[in-house]
Design brief:
mainly alpha
Length: 306
């Protein structure tokens, strides 16, 4: 089979997999929570002595019912608009999550091609990297599968969301250090914390999928294993020594090439290199300094992310 036929078979198998609706429902639930947040904040401030309690919720509901019809209509319109806009925003994350889930399946099936047991399990063709033609087909297939689906648009969604969450957390921290515990009595603080928590749920999922995709497409250990198998095969078939030596040289060059390409293209969490460098140097360094002051010993968390 040609690389295009194998790639088409993998793509068809991924497209037949049913998409999960977990994060769709999660987006609807989070949108509802963000829409009722003003009413929760109002109930919290209804009785400052008792704080957020059943009595405070009862007082808040009574005030809402006794308000004029015009104000009730404004509350309903605000709730509806907030629900609609939040659903539109979380729809972008659902699209990004589905794209990354499909990429993970591409990487999973691609990684199974060179293993007989897993290739048979997934119903895929199996071939070993013992000839130059197989190596060429494997490299072409890897390049095709890494670029299937939207690339730039999903990257923009993730990068923008990460920058938004980072900005929100920075503003909340500055406000907390300047006003202390009084900042928790402001609706802006509640809104910022709620949005940062909602964004962190989806970003954590996307970061985990991106890490799994990188691990599946990381072929350095596979190429080294194939080189070792070639040496064993040379001993078993001396008559094919010249052909196998050429294949081994191609595997060595391919390993060096993929290592250089992956170091340039693959950044932390599939984000842009600028955001990755900012996350690694600035954010983690600042958090390491704060944790070191609290715990009493030095932490270098920025070295955990290459």
């Amino acid at each position: 089979m040609s690389p295009l036929e194998i790639g088409y078979q993998i793509i068809s198998k991924v497209e037949r997999v049913k998409s999960s609706l977990e994060y769709v429902w999660l987006g609807i639930i989070l949108s509802f929570i963000m829409s009722i947040l003003p009413f929760v904040f109002r109930a919290h401030n209804a009785d400052k002595q008792s704080g957020f309690s059943v009595q405070a919720v009862r007082i808040s509901i009574t005030e809402l019912v006794n308000e004029p019809l015009e104000l009730q209509l404004i509350h309903i319109i605000g709730f509806t608009l907030s629900m609609a806009l939040s659903c539109c925003f979380f729809t972008l994350f659902v699209v990004a999550e589905r794209t990354y889930s499909q990429r993970y399946l591409y990487a999973k099936f691609f990684n199974a091609l060179t293993t007989m047991r897993r290739a048979k399990q997934y119903g895929l063709p199996h071939f070993r990297l013992r000839s130059i033609q197989n190596i060429k087909a494997w490299l072409s297939l890897r390049s095709v599968l890494r670029r299937v689906g939207p690339q730039r648009s999903v990257g923009i969604i993730i990068t923008s969301s990460f920058l938004i969450m980072l900005t929100i957390l920075t503003v909340v921290c500055v406000q907390f250090f300047s006003k202390g515990s009084d900042s928790m009595n402001m609706y802006f603080t509640w809104l910022a914390i709620a949005w940062s928590m909602c964004l962190s749920v989806y970003l954590l999922r996307l970061f985990t999928l991106a890490n799994d995709i990188n691990e599946r497409f990381d072929s350095h250990s596979l190429l080294i294993t194939e080189q070792i198998n070639l040496f064993f095969f040379i001993q078993q078939s001396p008559q094919k020594k010249e052909q196998l030596i050429q294949a081994n040289q191609v595997l060595q060059l391919s390993s060096k090439l993929l290592k250089e390409i992956d170091s340039k293209e693959t950044s932390v969490f599939f984000l842009s290199p600028l955001v990755s460098q900012f996350l690694r140097v600035f954010l983690l360094s600042a958090f390491s300094g704060l944790a070191s002051e609290i715990l009493g010993f030095k932490l270098k968390l920025w070295k955990m992310i290459k």
